[in-house]
Amino acid sequence: MASPVTRPIRTLLVANRGEIALRVLRTARGLGLRTVALRVPGETAGIAGAHHLAAADACVEVASYLDVDAVVAAAVACGADAVHPGYGFLSERADLARALERAGVGFVGPGADVLDAMGRKDRARELAAEAGVPVLPAWSPGDDPAGFTYPVLVKAAAGGGGKGMRVVRSAEAYPDALAAARREAAGAFGDDTMLVERFVERGRHVEVQVMGDAHGTVVTLGDRDCSAQRRHQKVLEEAPAPDLPDATRTRLLDASRSLASRVGYTGAGTVELLVDVASGEFFFLEMNTRLQVEHPVTEQTTTVRGEHPDLVALQLRVAAGEPLGFTQADVAVTGHAIEARVYAEDAYGGFLPQAGAATLVRWPAGPGVRVDHALASGDVVTTGFDPMLGKVVAAGADRDEARARLVGALDATAVLGMTTNVGFLRALAASEAFAAGPLDTAWLDREPLPPAPDPAVARAVTAWCAAWLPTLTATPGDPWAADGFRSSGPAAPARVRLDVPVAVERLGPEHGRLTWEDAEQDPGVRGTTRVLEVRVHSAADHTVVADVTDVSGAVERAAGATTRETVVVDVQPGPQRGGPPRAQACHRGQRLVLEATPRAAGGAGGAGGTRGAAGDGLVVAPMPGAVTQVRVSEGQEVAQGEVLGVLEAMKMELALAAPHAGTVTRVDVEVGEQVSRGREMFHVEHAFSQFVEPATGEIGGQAQ
Known about the structure:
Layout: E1 11-14, H1 18-30, E2 34-39, H2 52-55, E3 58-61, H3 68-77, E4 82-84, H4 94-102, E5 106-107, H5 112-118, H6 121-130, E6 138-139, E7 152-156, E8 165-168, H7 174-189, E9 194-198, E10 203-212, E11 218-230, E12 233-239, H8 246-262, E13 267-276, E14 282-288, H9 295-301, E15 302-304, H10 311-319, E16 331-333, E17 336-343, E18 345-346, E19 352-353, E20 356-357, E21 360-362, E22 369-373, E23 380-381, E24 388-396, H11 399-411, E25 414-416, H12 422-430, H13 432-436, H14 443-446, H15 456-468, E26 503-508, E27 511-518, E28 528-540, E29 543-550, E30 561-572, E31 582-587, E32 590-594, E33 618-620, E34 625-630, E35 637-638, E36 643-649, E37 652-657, E38 662-667, E39 674-675, E40 680-686, E41 692-693, E42 698-699, E43 702-703
Parallel strand pairs: 1-2, 1-4, 2-3, 4-5
Antiparallel strand pairs: 6-9, 7-8, 7-9, 10-11, 10-13, 11-12, 12-17, 13-14, 15-16, 17-24, 18-19, 20-23, 21-25, 22-24, 26-27, 27-28, 28-29, 29-30, 30-31, 31-32, 33-40, 34-36, 34-39, 35-38, 36-37, 38-40, 41-42, 42-43
Helix pairs in contact: 3-4, 4-5, 11-12
């Protein structure tokens, strides 16, 4: 094990980016340390996650955040006494810890030997078993899959974050799942070693925060529940784990502390365990040898001698060779906290990563609310980095208060210009299922998603703003007068379209009626005529508070029902200079852009949003990314569901399948090509298309 630094840390290099880099820099500045940040070529102000460049005292450019030699050279060049790796990137790389030790620079984390042992799921599993911690039944990846007890989980032995993981339910599906997991792991961690374990259908992901020093002290700082996951990646995390029997909690904490003590753990770490909902048994999953994304909920609910700890400050103290200065008896847990991870992803479109320019960003504030983020208005989100944009944390005296505050905080969160998961997070936090208690880890993959927010109100308010804004004049009491919302100079009323052109009728200074056709059905089928009245109460800082009354009288809607809603609206210049303004709205996190897009030009999306118009055989990119595989060529016959190609973005692979059996008539992409969302990639002509009437989609006079 590497020896701890025995001299004070005066200069700290933060070898990471985004919200974690800002989090570490904030503590370091508070401790009076000189700070140095890293950047990669092309990473400048305006790129999401790059705000750490301005927050540090100095900055050094490296070829890659994953380049160990470059990071060590940067640390030496800037005179750093220690390097804090944050999480992800190099935080669990033993070769970095060893290289820094050789260079005489401290590493803020456990020693290289511990990183080797506990940073890998396979070796950590062996040590846990030796320490008496229960482990799941497992097999070697090379074993005959016919002998596995299904379902099994194939997962990367290195790394984390849900990458390189696949649930496999049959021997037939195993080879493809293993190969895909290997590719994803190799791309994310540079290591494609796999582990195969029994998959618990309904389990809770409960983890324990540990902290140790080089003087033999190891303590636990409470536990967390991170069971709200999709595709093995955490969505909501909370502390302490709710509805956990006291006896089970005690055993979890004791087992985690014993394991950390056995390996001589120093610094902050997390022991992750799986609690079987059916039996109440728990099993060791892995140990994350670094600070976790969800550490704020621990800081908000744990006290040391009555004060909330700063886990980064404790890390730096331990890295400098100092004792923790407290024992387990000094630790208490009080209250409750819940964290929501805000991602650039389409939660209602398969959770696929998104990219784009964040034209307007609003983060919440208020009692018990904490936000760790690295995204501001105008930032550009690319597919070159992890899609997490920030974390919204809410704390309260109990779980109900924390949850209510989180729902309110997510209502006040807005990111315009691109799609995020904020609306989904809000719906999940407010759902009866989450309110009732902890979910199991497969719940989001098994049950229907919380319903998407109805966009009608946001569209109505946005249309009202876009159509009337240019005609408003500053008058006493005008809600638009004292903000940056007003467009400058006279202009013709904006041409606003929803599904079809909207009719706008002005009934008063802040009162209007909008009529449009709400196309909630298939293309070519006439939609429902909607009539909504909007009465604005206030409008400032791009936020509109309005009563929206549905007066359409449609059978399926409660005519006259009034709902007061808060909608964030951003009115921007039109696509051409001098053109009418274009409006974007964010209602509970759902981005809505009102543009002149004829409904007939659009089409019903296929599964996962990968198809063009229903049944037309066009396969488009459902997310921006890089083409890593093209498996077909023009003229090739394919079966329905056969993989045509593979798209990769932000270390996630997505297979694009044939929408139906037929012939590949177009292949519009090449391996290595970067594509944008919506890019046409393949076209598969239906095997019976020569007999199909295009207008009716019928064969032989009978519907398909």
